[in-house]
Amino acid sequence: MALSNVSGFPRIGRNRELKFATEGYWRGQTSAEELAATAKAIRVENWKLMQDAGIDLIPSNDFSYYDQVLDTIALVGAVPERYGWEGGEVDLDTYFAMARGRQTDDQDVTAMEMTKWFDTNYHYLVPELGPDTTFSLSGSKPFDEHAEAMEELGIDTIPVLIGPVSFLLLSKPAEGVSERFEAVDLIEPLIEVYGEVIEKLAEQGATWVQLDEPCFVEDRSEKELDALRLAYEELSKVRERPRILVKTYFDHVGDAYGVLRDLPIEGVGLDFTGFIHEEGSGFGDAPFHEHGGRRNAEFIANQEGLGDKWLFAGIVDGRNVWRNHLEHSLDALDGLNSHTEQLIVSTSCSLLHVPIDLEAEPSGVDADLDDEMRSWMAFAVQKVGEVVTLAKGTAEGREAIADQLDANDRVRDSRRLSDRTSNKEVRARLESLDEEHDRRNSPFEERKQAQRGIDIPELFPSTTIGSYPQTDEIRQTRMKLKKGEIDWAAYKEAMQSDIEKVIRFQEDVGLDVLVHGEPERNDMVQYFGEQMEGYVFTENAWVQSYGSRYVRPPIIFGDVLRPSQMTVDWITYAQSLTEKPVKGMLTGPVTMLEWSFVRDDQPLADTCRQLALAIRDEVEDLEKAGVQIIQVDEPAIREGLPLRKDRWDEYLGWAVHCFRLATSVARDETQIQTHMCYSDFGDILEQIQAMDADVNLIEAARSRMELLHDWERTGYRNDIGPGVYDIHSPRIPSTEEMVELLHEAARVLRPEQIWVNPDCGLKTRTWAEVDPSLRNMVQAAKQMREELVPAS
Known about the structure:
The protein is α/β, with parallel strands linked by helices. 41% of the residues lie in helices and 12% in strands.
């Protein structure tokens, strides 16, 4: 008999209750008790939803105030020394200080580094470990939430934890610790704490515990595989314990399959999503998509199955919004069923990566997400229903879900046959491209000479990344336009007023290259997608990016086309207000792709090339309008890197090509900048160089210039702005702090190639934070110039 399970559920609340409660707590407007009550209400609602839907094995401890890795840091007492924690249970303020930094009269500490969660747009807090790190059970969250579900609803949930080996592999060496330090050397003392957790969960009646080990869908060494084996051999020896489930997701498990198969545990979770069906294929010859589903299926079939273990089959996609192909999923599940003791139908990963409920979207003929397109999609609530349906079909036979199968077939036929997904003009243009379309006219050295006509300092020019604080007033004005309470003329006047304020502020601060501040932009991807064909948008489909930062990813359903100019009027207006250069601000094609829910009926590379042509047209129009500097942001280019290295070359080939295709139309005299942030770029510096941007503004402050080690190894020829101001923390960095970072950069890079800038855009910060921070930054740039060119 097949059972049903969900790996995790969105924790933000249907109406973003967690965001407002958390931010209220940070501002001192919400008490800790009120925040806890909001959190509890969200958890109980989620559990009841899954219980009512018929899910057999429901998760707990998938909720977080900020991030699940940060929760684990607090649980095992791996709190860096600078936060002043003295043992005992990690309190809420210390927890948030690790996430956001803390700046008071008594304490000034930076936040922990934040980076992307594998190849998603979710960000996690990076543990800081060293040989002297000690672990201790320092929290009660997993126990509290398991007990809460039992008390409120009578549910024996599966507590979800980051597995001990992945926790170590996701870490970085603490400040002052040698790069040669290997965190897996700490596995034995960490296992002791996990053993306490498992034992305590058993004491309060937990039947299962889920330990997520996603790091084993990446290439791993024998030492790391040995750590996986050691961890679960030891945890299985806990005298009284629940059943142990080890879950992986996002790709295939490769060499770890044999280790997982042989571990003395009760359950293994694998990702089987992404397969593409061919008529008549079943398990064994079903062409699973290369991202991992096919390989995991082959491991099951060809390597002795899983023996007496329960297989948690991740067959419902937790990362995209398209409906499951029920018939083909049942084919796969039927094949898997014969190779395991017990089959559990599950999601491929936590559903935190998708919006909560399709029913929250407006419906009817006037809705952007119209009835036909809605029928093609499934959000978290609908995916829970798909899991239950597939479990029932596997257990009772397809006749038990005949109506659902018929409806599913009709929906899929509607999408497959729709003329809304294809554009002959776009496809013909792609076919006409030749090898010259992705090359600038001249090499960088010649372009740099040609760009000397732009009025900027030769040493340490200063700029910002693009956005300035999105105030309540700006958001309210945008909402009034949407509701029809003001017309376009009034809206334009309000936005131009804000643009002028931002220009005057930047002139006053003394920045060298200005931006218009982006008040008219709701989101760096959505803004552009709304002006392109092939995109559709939602009203309430929020997804967590990090902490209280939520986004509404647009949905690419068809061929992408830019019908008209998107930014030229706003940028030329801003430039008319000042003699200083104002950058044109665009989002690059790879980021447009990665930060959208993407169509799954054609290769990603084809969709990205369509996006590149749309951005290319906008670059050309900005240049014709006299814009001298154009920034094409690609913060997501590292995020899209496949988790297995054998597929890196293919991805990087088309990703770099698409950026160059978007930007190569620019003349030598036009400076192309780009921006990247919050990923580990050290292993793709060669490809970043190949993108051939004139200036690369890259995150570095939060990680304290860690990229310097990679630049020392590889060098970097073009100009670069290693960020000196961590904008994801409310603390205000001093001039001295930023000068120190710039000295570090100048130790490795040539002074004449260094720009001075924040790590990222300033949209989420307040003016009270931005004003002094940027004044300190500009002063740091001036101080560096004076050191190198003393006044005569």
